[in-house]
Amino acid sequence: MSDNNQTKNLRSALPMAALDEIPEPRSDAKNIVGLVKQRGKITGYQLSDGQTVSKEEGVALAESGEIRGVGIAHRGDTRYLKSLPDSEEGNNLSSLPSVGVDRAR
User: Fold this and answer.
1) Virtual CA dihedral for 104, 93, 68, 81, nearest 10 degrees?
2) What's the confidence (pLDDT) of residue 93?
3) Among 93, 57, 59, 54, which residue's Cα sits nearest to residue 75?
4) Separation between Cα atoms, residue 100 and residue 86, nearest integer Å
5) What pLDDT does 18 receive?
6) Does the global pTM surpass 0.90?
7) Which uninterrupted H or E stretch holds 52?
8) Chunked mean pLDDT (size 10), the chain, 105 residues
């Protein structure tokens, strides 16, 4: 394997290692298209069917295969969704628009 391929493999392996779980999406799974934020923190997700769910509901939906392209991670006792690493930047959760107006600025 070339050095370039090894570097690419390491770049994708490290983010994957930060995930606690990678659920298998169902064939009709939705995508996350927007982030709901309050005071700059993600509190929920907008799905491709227009539904808005809390962070906790999003984790539960992902666990049951209803959201594609995400894994589950945690910080302390809080579980949240992270994009599965791939070569596209535009589908990263951090690249998605905010759909909840952050009025606390």
Assistant:
1) -60
2) 87
3) 59
4) 26
5) 77
6) no
7) strand 52-54
8) 48 66 95 93 95 96 96 93 79 83 44
For residues 51 and 57, what is the distance between their CA atoms, to the nearest angstrom?
Answer: 11
Cα Rg of the chain, angstroms: 15
Instruction: Write down the pLDDT at residue 60.
Output: 98
The helices-and-strands tally (H runs, E runs) of the chain is: 2, 5
Write out the two tokens for 43: 């509190």
Question: For residue 55, what are the CA distances in angstroms to 2, 13, 21, 87, 92?
Answer: 40, 25, 16, 25, 16
Which pLDDT does position 11 carry in this prediction?
Answer: 47
Give backbone dihedrals phi and psi of 92, rounded to 5 degrees, phi first.
-70, 140
